Amino acid sequence: VQLQASGGGVVQPGGSLRLSCVASGFTVSNYAIHWLRQAPGKESEVVSCIGTVRTYYDDSVKGRFTISRDNAKNTVYLQMNNLKPEDTAVYYCNAVRSPQYNYWGQGTQVTVSS
């Protein structure tokens, strides 16, 4: 069982990035997939989540980020547009079905700087 997060990088304010969270060993459509981020010196926060039916966005990213799922590729994406310096953080994906089935990917660094 593995979650592989990728797609981070350095981008200027107003730019875009797309993060990918590729799952192996389980089916993402059966799980709630969360994207979280942690900035230096701050607690981690849930940025977005996609379940079987619903999606969730933190107020700080509404209208700028879009979460989606490609069942054929067993992958969840986070499209991030109009990035701001305050979006700078390490982003993680997390798959949860129950306390027993709770998987984490490694982080991917997103840096928004001019």
What distinguishing features does this structure have?
seven-stranded mixed sheet; 53% strand; four-stranded antiparallel sheet; globular; mainly beta
Write the SSE topology.
Elements: E1 2-6, E2 9-11, E3 17-24, E4 32-38, E5 45-50, E6 55-57, E7 65-70, E8 75-80, E9 89-96, E10 102-104, E11 108-112
Parallel strand pairs: 2-11
Antiparallel strand pairs: 1-3, 3-8, 4-5, 4-9, 5-6, 7-8, 9-10, 9-11
Short structural description:
The chain has 114 residues and is an all-beta fold. It contains no helices and eleven strands. Helices cover 0% and strands 53% of the residues.
Evaluate the radius of gyration.
13 Å
Mean pLDDT across all amino acids: 96
Helix content: under 10%
Number of helices: 0
Distance between the termini: 38 Å
Task: Please give the number of β-strands.
Answer: 11
Shape: globular
Q: What class, by secondary structure content?
A: mainly beta
Q: State the low-pLDDT regions, or none.
A: none
Strand content: over 45%
Order of helices and strands: EEEEEEEEEEE
- Report on the biggest sheet: 7 strands, mixed
Detailed description of the structure:
The protein has about 110 residues and is mostly beta strands. It has no helices and eleven strands. It is globular.
